Structure formats: structure tokens, C-alpha cells
Amino acid sequence: xxxxxxxxxxxxxxxxxxxxxxxxxxxxxxxxxxxxxxxxxxxxxxxxxxxxxxxxxxxxxxxxxxxxxxxxxxxxxxxxxxxxxxxxxxxxxxxxxxxxxxxxxxxxxxxxxxxxxxxxxxxxxxxxxxxxxxxxxxxxxxxxxxxxxxxxxxxxxxxxxxxxxxxxxxxxxxxxxxxxxxxxxxxxxxxxxxxxxxxxxxxxxxxxxxxxxxxxxxxxxxxxxxxxxxxxxxxxxxxxxxxxxxxxxxxxxxxxxxxxxxxxxxxxxxxxxxxxxxxxxxxxxxxxxxxxxxxxxxxxxxxxxxxxxxxxxxxxxxxxxxxxxxxxxxxxxxxxxxxxxxxxxxxxxxxxxxxxxxxxxxxxxxxxxxxxxxxxxxxxxxxxxxxxxxxxxxxxxxxxxxxxxxxxxxxxxxxxxxxxxxxxxxxxxxxxxxxxxxxxxxxxxxxxxxxxxxxxxxxxxxxxxxxxxxxxxxxxxxxxxxxxxxxxxxxxxxx
Length: 495
Description:
Layout: E1 6-7, H1 10-16, H2 18-21, H3 34-47, H4 70-76, E2 92-100, E3 105-112, E4 123-127, H5 135-144, E5 147-149, E6 156-158, E7 168-173, E8 182-183, H6 194-211, E9 220-225, H7 228-246, E10 253-259, H8 265-278, H9 284-293, E11 299-300, H10 302-315, H11 348-356, H12 359-364, H13 381-384, H14 397-405, E12 409-415, H15 423-433, E13 437-446, E14 449-457, E15 460-465, H16 472-475, H17 477-489
Parallel strand pairs: 4-7, 4-9, 9-10, 10-12, 12-15
Antiparallel strand pairs: 1-11, 2-3, 3-7, 3-8, 5-6, 13-14, 14-15
Helix pairs in contact: 1-3, 5-11, 6-7, 7-14, 8-15, 9-10
Subcellular location: Secreted
Main location: secreted
Keywords: Carboxypeptidase, Disulfide bond, Glycoprotein, Hydrolase, Protease, Secreted, Signal
């Protein structure tokens, strides 16, 4: 008996399989869950009619942050972070940049300069994915910024391998509705997509550089992870297009680096099941059924969906974003979390969320000045509960090809413990690009220990990070910093 094919993007498959069995058993409202939940919503809007989200409670907020004067820059300077031990060895800034004055749409940023010789170091933008996850909360506070939060939810500790050791780091909460960023126009929350996010990011950059003019001629790089595999190529191509159109280099873009990138819906999904099989997480029977029933070309039969569901049931309660990572069972008692050999407290995102909702912290950050009607969240319900995300291309390969043709430095890197946006999916993307190899596959090392593997193509470098999950700087901070430093230098990581 033949089954009728169902035309769908990756989200419907997630709705049938990964979302139900995997997300149900992990922490909610954090970046680790976000791509799965977003993909569910992408497809749900096709098949479920009539649902409307309630508007964010700040929709009629009266204030808008305008302009970018030197006085406002000094007002954005962070004097002291609550819970900080001692005096910071670097300057920090936080505040808002308005990207649409008419709509009242303003984006929150956090900027931390290098402790030594910041004038000699590049400017680097970090973007988290989701869509809807905070580059400040996830990127800066969890992964690669100078501070993170102790389990008391109040005090901070310095991170030894913060990326501002080698660059001046800028983090944006984007789109509006993420973190402290907001809009005064209710419809903005129902008309968000890749294009608006890209346009707002560009407007932010140009405006922010007016506030920090010494960075206008500084080498500029864009980095990030996961769904930033959409944001980063789109923003980079827009910057290059604007520079050409005006014959003025408004933003001196030099390169991009994307970790565990979400670049192609079908290739990413196919790679997840290959990853399960390669890591002894599913049976030969389940894997054979998937290979027989699923073409991973955008058309999926009921038999294929059933085969994938069988595999997910066999896999059980494993965090797909780091298959060896522990799960936070009780944020108030971290000792109850499962044991793990990998780096990181699995409850850290809870500590960060609690800290960033403290009134004294928000005052220090010049955040929530309009009185948002909801708490700060690592991943925004206003965005990923949004049933109207307007545009999310099925594949980013055309954008990547366009960026390669521009001569922009491009690095892709993958933590090898991530099963969702896995190293295998990136390799499938590279196979599709068909780039000539210029430097053969080899290990790269730190202190004579293999830290990962790297291969150089014409126009692109791909590296893996051994022992890291989806959020590479969180699980392997030292290796991540070493790889990032090599990227900035334009040199392959050490042999």
C-alpha cells in the first residue's frame, strides 16, 4: 500500500519525533531546546489554523531610546556589575540602540573591550540563534563573555578563557522581543523573520558605530552558532552589498565564523540520524528503516516519519545538543544533577536567568528602562511562540556561496558531541559546495593533545572541537578560545 508524500520542512519531522521525545525531557526555554521548538512552530503554522499569540505586555511602552551621542555612550558605561569581585580590568558598556524610531523598536547590547591594548584588537559581533535566544545571556554569560554566575544566583566569577582576551566583543539581543530588546508596536512581534532581523542588525551596527566612532575603521568579524547560521551569512552579505552600493566601507567586514551551524533543513535532519547510528544510540533495524524509507529531500512519507519515531524512542532521554552532557534536574540543588565528564554545570542557565532578573542588575546594565511586562528569558517566548515568523530559508547554501565569492574569510566549526546541528551535517553542506581542498584533513592540538580536526578548502575552513556540544565555548572554553584566536589571525589552528 502506497502512502501519500507530505511536503514539509524539517519542522514537521521534529513535531513527529525529536520534539516530543527529546525536548520533553530537557530544560525548557533555553537555547538547547530552541531550534527544535522553532522548527515545530514553523510547520505548525502550515497545518494549524486560527491560533494567535497574546501580545507582549510592553506593547504600549511609552519610551524609545533615540540617538547615539557621546553623552549617551558614557551613560551606557557599566560602573560595576552586582556580585562582581574586584574591579574589572576592561571597560564594559550596555544599553539600547533604536533601530526603528517610528515603531519604537530598540535592541539591547552588551559590549566588553579587551583588557589589554583594545585599540589594537578587532571588533567582533557574537550572535546566538534560536531564533529568539539571547546573545547576552547565552553567548556572553554562559559561553564566552568575561563573567558567569555562581549557583547562589547573585555573585559572579571571571571566566579564564573569555574571548575579550583577544578581541573587543559585542553582543546584541535580536530580534526585538528577545531578552531586554523590545518594540512599542505590537505587530512587530508577529512580523519578524530572517529579513527583518538582518535589516535591524545592520541598522544597529551603523548606529552603534556612531556611538563608538573609534571602531569604524577597525577590522570587524561576525561570529555565532546554531540558527545564527542564517543570521550571519545574511548580515555579512547585506554589509557587503551596502558597502558596494554606497562606495563607502561603512562596516569593515573581514570574516565570519559559525559554530554548529543550522545551514540546511534536510541535510541537518539526515545527519542527526546518521549521528545516532554512529554513536550506538539506535538499533540497526531503526537505522535501516530510515535509510530505506526517507529520502531527506523535502518530501517525507508516513513510513519515513514512523521510522524516525522508532529511532527517537530507542534513543531515549538523551540531550541531543551534547549527548554526554548531564541534565539539570534541580537548579536549587545542583548536586542532584546527573554526573558527567564534560565541562560545565548543567544548571548555569538557571543561575544566569535569575541574576539577569534582579532589579539591581538591570539598573547596572541600563536595561529594562521602559518597564517590560515580562521577565528576562534566555530564549524569548515572544519570538519562538510566534506563529508568524515570516521567512526562514530551507537552505543557506546560496548565501554561503555568495559570501565565498566575495573573498570574505569563512570558518565553520562543530562541537563533535552535538547530534542536532552535527559535524556530519556541516560535512554534507561542504560536499554540496564542492570546494577544492587546499589543506588536507589533520588534527589540531593544544599542549600536544588533540583538540579537534581541521581541513582547509578554497574560500572556507572547517574545524571540529573534540569533546564539545552545541555551545562549543561553554563545553570546551580553552579549545574554543584557541580556535577563535586562529580564526582572527587567519591561520589554521596549530598542528
